[in-house]
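My current task is to audit a protein record that another person submitted. Alongside the sequence sits a line of tokens, each denoting a local backbone shape. Please read both lines and tell me whether the tokens look consistent with the sequence. Do not assume that whoever made the record got everything right. Thanks in advance; the entry in question is below.
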Amino acid sequence: MSILGLKKKQPKTFKVKVITMDAEMEFSCEVKWKGKDLFDLVCRTVGLRETWFFGLRYTVKDTYAWLKQEKRVLDQEVPKDCPITFHFLAKFFPEKVEEELVQEITQHLFFLQVKKQILDEEIFCSPEASVLLASYAVQAKYGDYDPNFHKPGFLAQDELLPKRVLMQYQMTADMWEEKITAWYAEHRGIARDEAEMEYLKIAQDLEMYGVSYFAITQNKRDTDLLLGVDAQGLHIYSPNSKLSPNKSFPWSGIRNISYSEKEFTIKPLDKKKDVFKFYSSQLRVNKLILQLCIGNHDLFMRRRKVDSIEVQQMKAQAKEEKARKKMERQILAREKQMREEAERAKEEMERRLFQLQDEARLANEALLRSEETADLLAEKAQIAEEEAKLLAHKAAEAEQERQRLEVTAMKTKEEKRLMEQKMREAEQLAVKLVEQSERRLKEADHLKQDLTEAKDAERRAKQKLLEITKTTYPLIAAYSTPPAPPEAADLGYESASTRLDFKDSDMKRLSMEIERERLEYMEKSKHLQDQLKELKSEIESLKLEEQQQQAGLYGLHSEARGYVQEPVYIPHSNRNSAYMSQMAFFEEV
């Protein structure tokens, strides 16, 4: 009994840590639990019903293994750590993700695992496909692209592209982000589960998707090869090429797979084809290969059969759930749209309010200015009214003055007409006087000429008479007659002198008459000149009065219009030229 008492009690439970793609969980498991008990607990915790794709993987030495469900956990080659660490991962991959993956959680776990394999370069992906897949990953994480929220640099902390792709091109992180964002902006309206499904649909077409690779040899001394196991079958690759298999064995063409220690045998369904054998150096790896082959073949056969009741219920529930979520997304989208419209309307109303406030402020300022302007205009109107009255009064005075000037102008015109008539009469009189003066001058010239001729004739006659008297008179007195008495001689001489005296008296009388006529002519000319000077002075006074009247009338009209302009007199040269010529002619006369 003492020996038994010294023995330690065996613990009834052990600690387990399960790491999924997005969480870590710790469980306390009973010692007797099998692998299925732990796996079911994890699936229930995660909420996963499509359990046939997943398994619990652990690391042993330099390889990995999957926890077997039919054996107890502690009886397998699990690590002796506390807690024991397991990774909850997809063990088998579907052929067509859109048709086989029913639950959203299943899609999400597959999406996270495939994304990690691409980023870790376990699955080769071209740069173009990497950018497109990254855009769907961003859509699944951040939702719809919003330029106001998703500023440049918002992807700086996210790992989205394989390092091989980043090193292949000499591009900065901002340039890669710009390329990813350009695709990301086109995925607007896609929900998270839809974006993850689009990601998986692109990834399932990659050559290394869902393939588990193992190092093998075709015989014990031959070259190394790679065995690939996936949902389609078995593939043989060269060691340096995991993309294009050298030989493939689809599950539909395989009749049996067996192994004995390190040798694998693949028997084709067609008996005419050769059996393919290959070798693996590790027994643990051989068991893993066989386990993956059996699981993938079972799923391959299961896909070709009618879905079980459980799967049908799951698909129906998933369909209803998708429809419900789709409706919720539509309602949410409508509410979001309505909220955005309401926010836009609110912003518009606020903007309109600010605008109306500005307009009201401007209107108040304009009203104040208009009131000031109205007061000023009222004052100006009053001033203008007074000025209008003054101008009306001046206009009335101007109108009276204009009428007076018109009457004066009419009188002036009548006087002007009379003066013109007088001028014409004076001109005619002047012409007559000129003609008469010329005639008188001619007559005076003739008279002067006749007088000169008479004087010359008288002088010659006197001279001849004296000569004859001197020569003839002594002879006659001596020879012909007796000497006359002195009285007789004196009488003859007296008679001769009387005749001479008579001629002298005529000449004097004629000269006196001519002088008298000349004096009368000079008196008439002087009287005519006086009349002409008087007429000229009257014409000048009339012209000056007419200019003053025109200037006064123009000034009154200008003042009535509200401005004053200096009167300008334009001489009527054409109208007064006749008057000036006549006055010049009269002055000459």
User: Anything to note?
Assistant: Confidence is low (pLDDT under 50) at residues 1-7, 475-502, 560-589. The domain at 13-90 is CATH 3.10.20.90 (Ubiquitin-like (UB roll)). The longest strand covers residues 13-19. DSSP finds twelve helices and twelve strands in the chain.
